[in-house]
Design a protein that fits this description.
Blueprint (H helix, E strand, L loop, with lengths): L2 E7 L2 E6 L4 E5 L4 E8 L1 E5 L4 E4 L4 E4 L5 E6 L6 E8 L1 H8 L15 E2 L4 H8 L13 H18 L4 H4 L10 H8 L6 H7 L4 H12 L3 H18 L5 H7 L5 H12 L3 H11 L2
Antiparallel strand pairs: 1-2, 2-9, 3-8, 4-7, 4-9, 5-6, 5-8, 7-10
Helix pairs in contact: 2-3, 6-7, 8-10
């Protein structure tokens, strides 16, 4: 896979994927402001899926589990400018502002379709990726401050995201896992987002499910995959991308071990039955 990543600062980068697709499951430590130059991205969260195309601008809030699938499109690579809005940077920005934000229970992705102010701000970064000298920190700080100020101008509710500095608190583990099992995250991330240490997470999980997290997660993902293949008529390649498996071969192996036939064989059998 041809993948290029170029930073002009730790918080501003240009990424490019030139292969058929790139899939990852992530939970970001910082808010991510993204502007697409070319390509497509599908982002899958618990309650909603998003499709972003060239020219789209969107904000991914921190601490939200998501599956991200990046595609080249129309012969062009998947290319985007990404700006990290870190907690440290946001604390500094809001330090002298009297902001009483209303914290949302669920932070969703916010899209700003080709907004001219944001597009101009992010497009102005492109020339700096070709400069060999170190990008001056004061200029980077000004660009990030500009982006935050624009977001606050065009989205009156954005403070509920950007000015929220709370860390995850201990929540109902069973409800959290039932909603998020399809994301292929390290157990450390699951434990953090449920407000627990890894040791406490494993102990609480065993009490609830009488099983290890790894075994339970695999079983739940296989059950979801079977449902999507048989009831939603999805293709195996679509299913593995959306149910937390690392790759198609691993998915096929685990599926056959559980159900006695591969996802492709199950899909073919269903197709023949429906003829």
């Amino acid at each position: 896979m041809e993948f290029h990543l170029k930073y002009i600062t730790d918080d501003i980068k240009l990424s490019s994927y030139e292969d058929k697709l790139f899939k990852t499951e992530v939970v970001f430590d910082h808010h991510m402001l993204v502007w697409f130059i070319s390509g497509e991205t599908k982002i899958i969260q618990v309650d909603k899926s998003y499709l972003f195309k060239a020219g789209d601008i969107f904000l991914i809030p921190r601490n939200q589990l998501a599956t991200i699938i990046n595609y080249p499109k129309d012969g062009l690579p998947h290319k985007s400018v990404v700006m990290h809005l870190s907690i440290a940077r946001l604390r500094e920005f809001y330090a002298n502002l009297d902001v009483k934000s209303k914290v949302s229970a669920m932070q969703k992705i916010r899209r700003f379709d080709k907004h001219p102010l944001l597009e101009s701000c992010l497009a102005s970064l492109i020339p700096y990726f070709d400069v060999q000298e170190k990008f001056p920190e004061n200029i980077a700080s000004l660009k990030i401050t500009e982006a935050i100020s624009i977001l606050r101008t065009i989205d009156k509710d954005i403070d509920s995201v950007l000015a929220n500095f709370e860390e995850p608190y201990k929540i109902d583990l069973a409800r959290f896992m039932e909603r998020n099992f399809m994301f292929n995250m390290p157990l450390e991330k699951f434990s953090y987002l449920s407000g627990r240490s890894l040791t406490t997470f494993k102990r609480d999980f065993q009490k609830i499910y009488n099983s290890t997290p790894q075994r339970w997660l695999t079983q739940k993902r296989l059950e979801l995959a079977y449902y999507q293949l048989t009831e939603k008529n999805k293709k195996p390649v679509e299913v593995y991308l959306e149910t937390g498996f690392e790759n198609l071969s691993h998915f096929s192996f685990a599926f056959k071990k559980q159900f006695g036939l591969t996802p492709t064989e199950l899909a073919d059998r269903r197709m023949n039955t429906n003829r």
